[in-house]
Automatic annotation (TrEMBL):
Catalyzes the hydrolysis of ATP coupled with the transport of calcium. Keywords: ATP-binding, Calcium, Calcium transport, Calmodulin-binding, Cell membrane, Ion transport, Magnesium, Membrane, Metal-binding, Nucleotide-binding, Phosphoprotein, Translocase, Transmembrane, Transmembrane helix, Transport. It comes from the Eukaryota. CDD domains: P-type_ATPase_Ca_PMCA-like. It comes from Esox lucius. This is Calcium-transporting ATPase. The keyword Transit peptide does not apply. Its main location: membrane.
Length: 1224
């Protein structure tokens, strides 16, 4: 069926059309297989029977064996790749260096400078007619014409163009190296993704890209399928196909009813084997990608001006959570129910990215500074122009002569250039750069600390973390399970008994139960190193049980060989609801036997008999159960052991039981034994937890284990201490405490529980999600809690996504968990999380250091240029010099200060919190203090410098006059003061020793010395372009001396106590506009203002857009950002839902049908309508509703408020929110 529809498309997309040659080798063509994969359910079964007879027939045509797989012969594999394609989707080409340069040139400030420079260039070549205009044009032409100076008028224009070129190249190079790093990271993630396939009857792990058509892949719970295939044999297999179909229900797959498995879908339960039938561009996901890729490449180029998006057609993948793993990258399912996201949506969402805390604060700050700079530069230009006009045409009453026009214009252009340079210096375009550099640097280094960061901002959010909800198994413990105690044949053995003491009957049943009723992929292999521990492969708890079999001097492998996996009659796989696993086998003498194992209190409840010392079943009464729990299970649990109960049940052959009726089947069991499995605490964990607690971070343990076990382990780890006031409860009790009569979670009840909660045992994934959400939404503390969560199972996905930072386990984690996470712990170790906290705080401090330095320069340079221009009609710092200063203070300083390595001291303080102003009072004190010192020096030099050094004054020099020594000294001193102040900026908490640890940062040292060297070159050889005259040694000495004064002055400032400077409190609050919708981020305003306002503010907005080069660089940062998808999930200003209830405008009865009150599609068109709710919410200045996605489901009322008060971006058609409304 698919042959016709897809053939032309296929021809376009299959890169090697040589496939035809090879189809003769196999009994089936690519097109037939593609057609087959488009069928579902029964249709597919019929089609396979009609065309191939049965699955074995299909395997024969593909020359593979359903049990042994491919031979693994290289020529055969190559042939298959030729015929059926490779398992990867060709990545999108990265942006070339030229494209990046073109992007950097889009910056408005630079464009203004370029235009000014070109005008200045043009005018300098223009000679007014008539030689004697000198007198008639007055001061305009005075004095500057001697020595052919007019000829060199072009130099300034050329120099500005040159420095613009420098800035552009530096920006482009930064973008380019980031893109390179990102792709490197990407490919590293890809190489790490492996999949289990059978080749030559051996199960091996292969990189996903090496899978070919005809491979037999083993699939299990938690896998993300890497290719399309047909199920050969499955146990209780359930697949989540929502990524392709949008259906959220799990689809049951069986070989006889619905065997079609599609790439990019998730295995939610069970296990099985599949025959791979389509890979790469021919798989269902691949087809969708290529369609998108084909349609959007053109669009993409025009619109997507963001660095580094993914390897595949960006549109979908980047907007999906940044994917991890090759299968994920290569086969990323479309995440929205409608299929791809529409063009229009992309336009709205490009700008409205979820900003991290730091980025929000910085953008706000940058915009405020930009505003101030804009005002200053405008005033500067106006004053200069007025002064010139009044002086020439009013006081000296000169007529405006036409032949003088070019000279006047030249003056105006010069004034304009001065204005623009003030602006250039004022706009701190280095801020986003500093953030990016700092984050990129941290991410690189965090790799060494076993943190694979998938979303750049997660690294910085981690520094603000106040709570960590950690799993127990594998994270706090070593995940090396060993059976250490057991209860069998009515005896409780404190250590594993000698097999001679046990009855043979019980022993046989036990060994069979463990060997057969566990995944056949779980094995214990001999140690690789001599004296090492045996290797545990597969599920660690099952390994512990297999270890018990080996300790009882038996072997599990012969039993498995006797009953291979395909002979198992029925398997009930483990899942979080059952908390047990059962396998049914057919007995040789007729009838069936089911072996069961699982959490002891759950399995024992279903037991009615138990084996006695002789191995004969005896009655097991409820009171025996209670005694067993008290005498066996609780003592084991209190020693921190996980208890597993093994049981069995026999069924008659006739009538055959109804296997689907689980409740009846999993009942009336006979208990065989209870095993206590130990999972020792990792040796480095207790110390790591102490460091967390010292750093003001609460660690909570969330585990599926029994409460006593969990409490014992929490004690060992130091999460709880005897005598403290803490809560350790299980999932049942937790839900009882936080839910009302109707069974809904109430935030007020939650607030009574979470502050003291330290251990949550027997918790389901939903409990984990509820807990994380409850802590995040809580308004108990003045700062919103920032929560990190660790998870490894498929079911941890929701909690990982909801948390501010989700950590997935690199070794034990399933693909689904990794995909939902922000950081992958490559060694599954809790102490790596502490490293992440350290790096996160370091990023925050690096940015603060840079800010402290940057703002000092900004303040001084702007004031100097402004007052200088007003008093002497010429800025003491020339345009080119300003650009050089801008280059040092932005690019170089951000490199130097953003790469400081972290120190242990970072973990000695509490988290900063979300509302703490970016600029602390100490920093404000430093900025003002150093600013005053620099201004005093510069103004002294400007107005009395010529007397001090006994040189000609450089003030009031005419147009095109040669550079003066006077102004060179000012420029040189200014730059040297910045250099020494850069050393001061290394400390932001008022420390005395600014040189502490300076040599640990070679980048810093080399940048300081490098800048100094270039400065010498500029002053001595810069000449006309840099408006510099060479200085002699004595003057250099004075300049350096004044620069060194900065270090001494820094010590003076450090002596002044902050308490004396009351007024600084206000200054430090500069950026503390609490993140509320009332004073929306100016930047968000730029990006999306309601239509009505848009008209009024268009002029202003254009200015702003131009002003901030910031946006250009935020684009780069955003390239690393996570997608919109999670943008809706992780909102910045989450606060409780209850706030809405207190406001009369929003009080809607709960009985309101769950339908948005105003259809948001109309809102799109009607600006007036759309403005009202926003202004309402502004009037009440209520915090924005928490977490768009989840709450929309929790309460219809929130949805309505959200859709109206959030602007177009969140409710444009096909956003997750919109699809949710339509479904409601």
């Amino acid at each position: 069926m698919g042959d016709l529809t897809n053939s032309d498309f296929y021809a376009k997309n299959q890169r090697n059309s040589s496939s035809a040659n090879h189809e003769g080798d196999f009994g089936v063509s690519v097109m037939e297989l593609r057609g087959l994969m488009e069928l579902r359910g029964g249709e597919a079964v019929v089609k396979i029977q009609e065309d191939y007879g049965d699955m074995d027939g299909l395997c024969q045509r593909l020359k593979t064996s359903p049990t042994e797989g491919l031979s693994g012969d290289v020529t055969d594999l190559e042939k298959r790749k030729e015929a059926f394609g490779q398992n990867l989707i060709p990545p999108k080409k990265p942006k070339t260096f030229l494209e990046l340069i073109w992007e950097a040139l889009q910056d408005v400030t630079l464009i203004i400078l370029e235009v000014a420079a070109l005008i200045s260039l043009g005018l300098s070549f223009y000679q007014p007619p008539g030689g004697d205009t000198g007198d008639s044009c007055g001061t305009a032409a005075g004095g500057g014409e001697d020595e052919g100076e007019a000829e060199s008028g072009w130099i300034e224009g050329a120099a500005i163009l040159l420095s613009v070129a420098c800035v552009v190249l530096v920006t482009a190079f930064n973008d380019w190296s980031k893109e390179k790093q990102f792709r490197g990271l990407q490919s590293r993630i890809e190489q790490e993704q492996k999949f289990q396939v059978v080749r030559g009857a051996q199960v091996i792990q292969l990189p996903v890209a090496d899978i070919v058509v005809g491979d037999i892949a083993q699939i299990k719970y938690g896998d993300l399928l890497p290719a399309d295939g047909v199920l050969i044999q499955g146990n209780d297999l359930k697949i989540d196909e929502s990524s392709l179909t949008g259906e959220s229900d799990h689809v049951k797959k069986t070989a006889d009813r619905d065997p079609m498995l599609l790439s990019g879908t998730h295995v939610m339960e069970g296990s099985g084997r599949m025959l791979v039938t389509a890979v790469g561009v021919n798989s269902q996901t691949g087809i969708i990608f290529t369609l998108l890729g084909a349609g959007e490449v053109g669009e993409e180029e025009k619109k997507e001006k963001r660095g580094v998006n993914r390897g595949c057609p960006d549109s979908v993948i980047t907007k999906v959570k940044k994917q991890d793993g090759a299968a994920a990258m290569e086969m990323q399912p479309l995440k929205s129910a409608e299929g791809g996201e529409t063009e229009e949506k992309k336009k709205t969402n490009v700008s409205k990215k979820e900003k991290s805390v730091l980025q929000g604060k910085l953008t706000k700050l940058a915009v405020q500074i930009g505003k101030a700079g804009l005002v200053m530069s405008a005033i500067t230009v106006i004053i200069l122009v007025l002064y010139f006009a009044v002086d020439n045409f009013v006081l000296q009453k000169r007529p405006w002569l036409t032949e003088c026009t070019p000279i006047y214009v030249q003056y105006f252009v010069k004034f304009f250039i001065i204005g623009v340079t003030v602006l250039v210096v004022a706009v701190p375009e280095g801020l986003p750069l500093a953030v990016t550099i700092s984050l990129a640097y941290s991410v690189k280094k965090m790799m060494k600390d076993n943190n694979l960061v998938r979303h750049l901002d997660a690294c910085e959010t981690m520094g603000n973390a106040t709570a960590i909800c950690s799993d127990k198994t594998g994270t706090l413990t070593t995940n090396r399970m060993t059976a250490v105690a057991c209860y069998i044949g009515d005896v409780h053995y404190k250590e594993i008994p000698d097999p001679g003491v046990l009855s043979n009957k019980s022993l046989d049943i036990l060994v069979n139960a463990i060997s057969l009723n566990s995944a056949y992929t779980t094995k214990i292999l001999p140690a690789t190193k001599e004296g090492g521990l045996p290797m545990q492969v597969g599920n660690k708890t099952e390994c512990g049980l297999l270890g018990l079999v080996l300790k009882l001097k038996r072997d599990y492998q012969p039993i498995r060989n006797q009953i291979p996996e395909e002979k198992l009659y029925k398997v009930y796989t483990f899942n979080s609801v059952r908390k047990s696993m059962s396998t049914v086998i057919k007995l040789p003498e007729g009838g069936f036997r089911m072996y069961s194992k699982g959490a002891s209190e759950i399995v024992l409840k279903k037991c009615t008999k138990i084996l006695n010392a002789e191995g004969e079943p005896r009655v097991f009464r409820p009171r025996d159960k209670d005694e067993m729990v008290k005498k066996v299970i609780e003592p084991m649990a209190c020693d921190g052991l996980r208890t597993i109960c093994v049981a069995y049940r026999d069924f008659p052959a006739d009538p055959e039981p109804l296997w689907d009726n689980e409740n009846d089947i999993l009942n009336e069991l006979t208990a065989v034994c209870v095993v206590g499995i130990e999972d020792p605490v990792r040796p480095e964990v207790p110390a790591a937890i102490v460091r967390c607690q010292r750093a003001g971070i609460t660690v909570r343990m969330v585990t599926g284990d029994n409460l006593n076990t969990a409490r014992a382990i929490a004690m060992k780890c130091g999460i709880i201490h005897p005598g403290e006031d803490f809560l350790a409860i299980d999932g049942k009790e937790f839900n009882r405490r936080i839910r009302n009569e109707k069974g809904e979670v109430e935030q007020e009840r939650m607030d009574k529980v979470w502050p003291k909660l330290r251990v949550l045992a027997r918790s389901s994934p939903t409990d984990k999600h509820t807990l994380v959400k409850g802590i995040i939404d809580s308004t108990l503390t003045d700062q919103r809690q920032v929560v990190a969560v660790t998870g490894d199972g498929t079911n941890d996905g929701p909690a990982l996504k909801k948390a501010d930072v989700g950590f997935a386990m690199g070794i034990a984690g399933t693909d689904v968990a990794k995909e939902a996470s922000d950081i992958i712990l490559t060694d599954d170790n809790f102490s790596s999380i502490v490293k992440a906290v350290m790096w996160g705080r370091n990023v925050y401090d690096s940015i603060s250091k840079f800010l402290q330095f940057q703002l000092t320069v900004n303040v001084v340079a702007v004031i100097v240029a402004f007052t200088g221009a007003c008093i002497t009609q010429d800025s003491p710092l020339k345009a080119v010099q300003m650009l050089w200063v801008n280059l040092i203070m932005d690019t170089f300083a951000s490199l130097a200060l953003a790469t400081e390595p972290p120190t242990e001291a970072l973990l000695m303080r509490k988290p900063y919190g979300r509302n703490k102003p970016l600029i602390s009072s100490t920093m404000t004190k430093n900025i003002l203090g150093h600013g005053i010192y620099q201004l005093v020096i510069i103004f002294s030099l400007l107005f009395v410098g010529e007397q001090i050094f006994d040189i000609d004054s450089g003030r009031n020099a005419p147009l095109h006059s040669p550079p003066s020594e006077h102004y060179t000294i000012i420029f040189n001193t200014f730059v040297l003061m910045q250099l020494f102040n850069e050393i001061n900026a290394r400390k932001i908490h008022g420390e005395r020793n600014v040189f502490d640890g300076i040599f640990r940062n070679p980048i810093f040292c080399s940048i300081v010395f490098g800048t100094f060297a270039i400065q010498i070159v500029i002053v001595q050889l810069g000449g006309k372009p840099f408006s510099c005259t060479p200085l002699d040694l004595e003057k250099w000495g004075w300049c350096t001396f004044l620069g060194l004064g900065e270090l001494v002055w820094g010590q003076v400032i450090a002596t002044i106590p902050n308490s004396k400077l009351r007024f600084l409190r206000g200054a430090g609050q500069l950026t503390k506009k609490n993140e509320m919708p009332g004073d929306e981020d100016m930047n968000e305003d730029n990006e999306e203002i309601d239509h009505a306002e848009r008209e009024l503010r268009r002029g202003q907005v254009l200015w702003f857009r131009g002003l901030s080069r910031i946006q250009t660089q935020i684009r780069v940062v955003n390239a690393f950002r996570s997608s919109l998808y999670e943008g809706l999930e992780k909102t910045d200003s989450r606060s409780s839902i209850h706030n809405f209830m207190t406001h009369p405008e929003f009080r809607l009865e709960d009985s309101t049908p769950h339908i948005p009150l105003i259809d948001d599609t109309d809102l799109e068109d009607d600006p007036a309508l759309r403005k009202t709710p926003q202004s309402l919410s502004r009037a009440g200045s209520q915090p924005q509703s928490p977490n768009k996605n989840n709450n929309a489901i929790d309460s219809g009322i929130n949805l309505t408020i959200d859709t109206t008060s959030k602007s177009a971006a969140s409710s444009s058609p096909s956003s997750p929110l919109h699809s949710l409304e339509t479904s409601l």
